[in-house]
Design a protein that fits this description.
Layout (H helix, E strand, L loop, with lengths): L29 H12 L2 E6 L2 E6 L2 H10 L11 H6 L13 H13 L2 H4 L3 H17 L4 H18 L9 H16 L6 H4 L14 H26 L11 H7 L7 H35 L1 H18 L12 H13 L9 E2 L4 E3 L2 E3 L4 E4 L1 H4 L15 H5 L1 H8 L13 H18 L26
Parallel strand pairs: 2-6
Antiparallel strand pairs: 1-2, 3-6, 4-5
The structure holds protoporphyrin IX containing FE.
The site of protoporphyrin IX containing FE has 26 residues, from helix 12 and helix 18.
Length: 461
């Protein structure tokens, strides 16, 4: 290991000539290895992989100072030739470079995704939560599949007014295929074209260009999932099969009668971005909730006691309007997001101008990541960080809640779906606690069957 002189780039593990830190980069659970590096080098660690500079931030202060206060130059995304450009995913918001089109898309989404605007969808979240729990009660072994269906259904209803089929829904099946294709396309180091971008210009008959065939197939799938529900919603605008209200018709009703090609493109991709951003993240978070309840029965009992009190007052199933009266369940939701953060390394940002931080030079083109997992498991902020303890948010509310906001990212790229995600998770959690007891499965003697649980590695766990 070495530490660089001030005025150079920040310190980090010693690189090798040409390949830099390639061999030291972790293959999985990167956040743990990066957390160890920050203990040695501080909260701004520098690595270089095949010439690509990467900085890993490991404190809220550093993340806010750079991605927040200097967000004008820290808000682009790294270039992914295979997953972003050739397959078309970079046309959606999450991978889009910082540009005027990005700003228009963000503005459009922001307007419709404020906590106030989202109240009109409360009923829909409540309905879908009941559908979810009825299915789970009939067959708990299909829990994960039903959670996926819930997350996908909510987002398709809110975005396009489309009601999913109970099984084998065409758009949900398609979106699963697209997400699987995206995971393969985004695998670090898997595609030569990510390291040597000009390979994309070789003709398709050239040996070694099979990636072009795959990219074309995945680009088609990507367009199918973005256009399919959009076209369905436009065609059904006046028919009873379209659930109202929904994002698309709300925006259309405020737009000029005839949309320009640019406006159409914006609408198509803003709806597609909602669909892509919302589904997998919610699945990951809700899975963490069910796991926590099975592992911490006392937390579950406390939450259910709180719920019983509130529900016996109005005698109905839980509703989103009950949220302010359920502070402990609010803390369960927060602890789910902290305990197993959905995106442990956030989503990478890209620096678009040279910068200087704490006397260190950061060059244009540097990829900046934040170790969200490490920040949310810092024992100084969250004592006994690996324990699931919702109470921590009740005692030390303000600071803990402010820190938790990093689970939704930073600056101009911070998650635009945060309020949506919270409503959708809160009501699913409250309905699950109301309708069932969550525990490990039991064997024939009634003894719990405990299994080791290991979270998948990747951008979304
Ligand atoms: C528990 C649930 C969720 C978590 C933890 C989460 C977290 C995140 C994070 C960390 C980012 C990247 C922020 C950054 O680059 O600094 C992000 C981006 C994004 N999220 Fe979420 N999200 C969740 C749910 C949702 C939902 C429900 C929607 C849609 C309704 C959504 C839509 C998006 C979009 C469109 C982006 C891309 C924003 C951009 O690149 O400018 N997310 N989310």
């Amino acid at each position: 290991y070495y530490a660089t002189k001030p005025r150079h780039h920040p310190p980090g593990p010693r690189p090798l000539p040409l390949i830099g830190n390639l061999l030291q980069m972790p293959k999985d659970h990167d956040w743990k290895v990066f957390g160890k590096w920050s203990k040695i080098f501080g909260d701004c660690v520098y690595v270089r992989v095949l010439g690509q500079p990467i900085v890993i931030l490991d404190s809220l202060t550093a993340a806010h100072e750079l991605l927040g206060q200097r967000s004008a130059i820290y808000s682009s995304r790294p270039r992914l030739v295979m997953a972003g450009e050739l397959t078309g995913f970079a046309q959606g918001l999450a991978l889009m470079p910082y540009s005027p089109r990005f700003q228009s898309l963000r503005r459009l989404l922001h307007r419709e995704l404020t906590a106030n605007m989202l109240q009109k969808y409360w009923r829909l979240h409540e309905d879908e939560s009941l559908i979810l729990m009825n299915k789970v009660l009939q067959d708990p072994t299909r829990l994960l599949e039903y959670i996926r269906h819930y997350a996908g259904s909510v987002i398709l209803r809110v975005t396009y007014g489309y009601q999913t089929a109970p099984e084998n829904d065409r758009f949900l099946l398609l979106s699963e295929k697209v997400m699987a294709a995206f995971s393969l396309a985004a695998r670090p180091g898997a595609w030569a074209v990510d390291m040597i971008p000009w390979l994309r210009y070789l003709p398709s008959w050239f040996p070694g260009t099979e990636f072009k065939r795959k990219a074309a197939k995945w680009a088609q799938l990507n367009m199918d999932v973005v256009e399919g529900p959009y076209i369905w919603a436009i065609e059904n605008q006046d028919s009873a099969s379209l659930i109202q209200p929904n994002f698309l018709t709300t925006v259309l009703s405020q737009s000029p009668a005839v949309l320009s090609a640019e406006e159409k493109d914006l609408l198509l991709w803003s709806s597609g971005s909602l669909f892509a951003g919302g589904a997998d993240t919610t699945v990951a978070a809700l899975s963490s909730f069910f796991l926590a309840m099975a592992l911490y029965p006392e937390v579950q009992a406390t939450a259910q006691a709180e719920l019983d009190k509130v529900i016996s007052a109005h005698g109905q199933v839980p509703q989103l309007s009950d949220r302010p009266s359920l502070p402990y369940i609010e803390c369960v939701l927060r602890e789910v997001l902290r305990w197993n953060p959905v995106t442990p390394l956030g989503v990478a940002h890209l620096l678009t101008e040279d910068d200087v931080y704490k006397g260190y030079n950061l060059a244009v083109g540097t990829i900046v990541m934040v170790n969200v997992w490490s920040i949310l498991h810092d024992p100084l902020s969250f004592p006994e960080p690996f324990e699931f303890r919702p109470e921590r948010f009740m005692i030390n509310d303000k600071k803990a809640v402010e820190t938790l906001a990093c689970a939704f990212g930073f600056g101009r790229r911070a998650c635009p779906g945060v309020h949506f995600a919270e409503s959708s998770m809160f009501i699913a959690i409250a309905t699950a606690l109301f309708q069932c007891k969550i525990s490990d499965p039991v064997d024939e003697q009634g003894e719990p069957i405990r299994r080791d649980v290991e979270y998948q590695t990747g951008t979304i766990r």
